[in-house]
Amino acid sequence: MAEAAADSGGNGDSGVSAAERGVAPIKTQYCTTKERFHEYLVANKQVSQETGTRDPDGSEPAEPEAKKIRLEEKQEENGETQGAAEQPHAPKRARGQNKSRPHVKPTHYDKDRLCPSLVQDSASACVFGDRCRFLHDVGRYLESKPADLGPRCVLFDTFGKCPYGVTCRFAGTHLGPEGQNLVQEELVAHCTLLPRVRNGLDRALQQQLRKRQVPFERAEQALRHLATPEQNSCDTQPDLAGHGAGIPPSSPVPTCGPLTDEDVIRMRPSEKKRLDISGKLYLAPLTTCGNLPFRRICKRFGADVTCGEMAVCTNLLQGQMSEWALLKRHPSEDIFGVQLEGAFPDTMTKCAELLNRTIDVDFVDINVGCPIDLVYKKGGGCALMNRSTKFQQIVRGVNEVLDVPLTVKMRTGVQERVSLAHRLLPELRDWGVALVTLHGRSREQRYTRLADWPYIEQCAKVASPMPLFGNGDILSFEDANRAMQTGVAGVMIARGALLKPWLFTEIKEQRHWDISSTERLDILKDFTHYGLEHWGSDTQGVERTRRFLLEWLSFLCRYVPVGLLERLPQRINERPPYYLGRDHLETLMASQQAADWIRISEMLLGPVPPGFVFLPKHKANAYK
């Protein structure tokens, strides 16, 4: 999801009026200038080493190179750099994705990596023998291994055993005097009885997918049915028993193999399990930031329904581990769904059948709202709203092979002034969709306008009796209450949860929570613990946790504490001016510079590796 900021006015400079459009109204005693803000943070910082995100003189954070290039190109296109006699304009802040950001993922995380056969305590020797390219000398590995990042290992304390052994960055907790990996037997026995994370990709299935050996009988049957024009009526059921169009019902039917109940009796759409989530708080599927550790945080604060990040159906069919990781479900997620993105009926239907028999979910959602070019230009996401035939075939095909309810998430339309949702909703209801979520913006608008809730209200009436959830600009319980008054069945929360995940608690308790900086740091600490559990406690897992933490911090810095606001509540399209918080930590969390986000990550995950650079996924999330 491309998170461009919706600030209609103001460029983040200090001294702006509290009433200025797009700027959060902060009490005068807390407002400050940009220079004083950074001077305050620098005065409270003891620099241990350069992180590469500041200018050489250390006076001011440097603009990321990729962002500066895009800014200069934009200025040249607009003619801002032509003619010295023109009145100088304030520099435009970059928007959209940092598509040209450097590929900073390291090819290896350790200079000398230990052989996995030693890390996993395998009883047998390494199968590669002398040809193995990894180290087999534990002593030599420990000599070159960086210092531990902390005194406690989350995995050892939680599960009784750390599977990363000597490679763990907190290994001092669970290594014996001779370098052996210690185990808490009682805790391990207790954890074996607890439910674990589900929906992983089995190795055997992955091999079958890569070799294209997985059968898709139901999907192929559904696709054949969709390809027959005379059977494309809503009231016509597929020929499940194999009767041909020209064969009378009384004639014998040629069969292959034994006839089972599944050949004759198929679950009708009306017999599917109902998705009854009306009135519940729905956490949106958020690309990059909506990972499993973040969803655990939101569940703890009261989110009722969660959904995995957008997964591309073709990548799932190819058995890509990174894509299947988006489908994982934590035991705390009691109502959980996955979101699929695709542009063609065959791949979407086959992927739906695959997921139907391999993972445990309560619903499957089709992404018809993704606005990014990479998806849109291939005919997926928002583009499906203009491809009605393909859209219908995808919905009908996926719905036919699923045993769980099918939902759709969509926008108002593609173009800003041409709304399509109200026309598509009755058709979606007839095609068998159980629930639709409508984001009150078009693809062209992105986040430059407020969500159109009057239009969502109109669509809720058109969609009835199919439940419609509304989405857009909910950052307080007042916003949620106004949204529910439009007649929607419930609300989906996206950016609001990124800015303050305790929003779910505020809505349920109907109050504003003036959360302290210490409490917010504890939330981040819990996220890092969940991240180490999910991604691992070795160097690779720690740095992956750090990357996702930094992406989240690029949203958290927009939150303004309740006690500092002149007017409640804060609106989602209002950017905070420069201000000094009630303590140093609160001020540090308000910084919009990546260098300060890195400082916060170092409080939780230790120092960053040498040469570490972080550039946010979205340009609007790091500006001066």
UniProtKB/TrEMBL annotation:
Q: Highest taxon of the source? A: Eukaryota
Cofactor entry: FMN
Tell me the segments the record calls region Disordered.
1-25, 42-111, 228-257
Query: Where in the sequence does UniProt note compositional bias of the Basic and acidic residues kind?
Result: 64-77
List where the protein spans the membrane: none
BP-aspect Gene Ontology terms: mRNA processing; regulation of translation
Q: Please state what class of enzyme this protein is.
A: oxidoreductase
- Supply the alphabetized keyword list: Flavoprotein, FMN, Metal-binding, mRNA processing, NAD, NADP, Oxidoreductase, Repeat, tRNA processing, Zinc, Zinc-finger
Skewed-composition ranges (Low complexity): 1-19
Which chemical reaction does it catalyze? Answer: 5,6-dihydrouridine(47) in tRNA + NAD(+) = uridine(47) in tRNA + NADH + H(+); 5,6-dihydrouridine(47) in tRNA + NADP(+) = uridine(47) in tRNA + NADPH + H(+); a 5,6-dihydrouridine in mRNA + NADP(+) = a uridine in mRNA + NADPH + H(+); a 5,6-dihydrouridine in mRNA + NAD(+) = a uridine in mRNA + NADH + H(+)
Biased region (Basic residues) positions are 90-106
Q: Which InterPro entries match?
A: Aldolase_TIM (IPR013785), DUS-like_FMN-bd (IPR035587), tRNA_hU_synthase_CS (IPR018517), Znf_CCCH (IPR000571)
| Residue span(s) of domain C3H1-type | 109-139
PROSITE patterns the UniProt entry points to: UPF0034, ZF_C3H1
Family membership, please give it.
Answer: Belongs to the dus family. Dus3 subfamily.
Q: Give the protein's recorded name.
A: tRNA-dihydrouridine(47) synthase [NAD(P)(+)]
Q: Which organism is it from?
A: Nannospalax galili
